[in-house]
Design a protein that fits this description.
The protein folds into two domains: 5-106, Rossmann fold (3-Layer(aba) Sandwich); 116-285 and 317-327, Dihydrodipicolinate Reductase, domain 2, CATH 3.30.360.10. Helix content is 34%, strand content 26%. The chain has nine helices and 13 strands. Helix 3 (67-76) runs parallel beside helix 4 (91-103) and helix 7 (165-181) crosses helix 9.
Length: 328
Amino acid sequence: MTNKIRTAILGMGVMGKRRRDAISRHGGFELVGTCDVVPGYDFTDWKECIDKTNPDAVFVCTINSVIPDIVCYAIEQGIHVFSEKPPGRNLADTLRMEDAYNTGNSILKFGFNHRYHNSIIEAKTLINSKLLGGVVCVRGIYGKAGNVDFTKEWRNNPELSGGGILLDQGIHMLDLMCWFLGDLTVEHGNVDRLVWRNMPTEDSAFAVLKTQDGKIASLHSSAIQWKHKFDMDIIFTDGYIALNGLLTGTRSYGEERITYYHKDLEIKDGKLGNPLEHTLCFDSDNSWDYETAEFFDAVRNGKPLVNGTIADAKRVMTLVESIYEQSR
């Protein structure tokens, strides 16, 4: 007898391989099948892979348009599901998966991986500690450079992806803003093609969001940030946090670090406007392992999901849809 979770991975691109490596490091999973439309894996049809391997769990690492079909089918079979973000192409896709989840008995987790980065964990801990007072606003910039074939990528085919840089990358920043601030609504949203003008999806997204109790968030998500950038400032009543850089597979977003400051209006520890700073830097990315471990504990040990729940998915997709609607 084995206590390992019999697992199939559907979609063996970059993310499928990354998930395969993470479950291998964890040791609590038994990989019983791999599937991709590209030959060279166990299956080329996801439904055949599920039916023939009869897994306990699946990792869904496909293009966005296929995600809802796989998730709903797997849940109907009583299979636990870990799905990459975004949760479908639009809110309707997310609601369809929510209906399947509510009528089944499976664990459903979405891969909002950024919550598991060390700097983000430290920021959340500081927020919860009230060391810097209460959060009043957050501003975030998340940008990449695209590439020479950017307009031809499936991510910029709205029938396959549902949207552009906002849905592909900005969704991570929106999820973090919700995690730090709580429920948000969109005060102003705009998406545009500022450089890639002949592309059917946006290369830039801007949004201002607000909580019911008046906290403010602003977002700039960009595919024309020619030097990759991840920056988030969290302003408190008594200080602030600067999150700069993010460890990724490409290492193109620079060193991952968190710096926090107490306000020092009486100039006890620093100079006016330049208070004493406390900085932590990280040289390893354990986020994939943390995320895999949470999924395992939910499936095998019955622990509740904290991150990447269907409620998280629905909340962030509601914001994405609102930004797109306001821009239309």
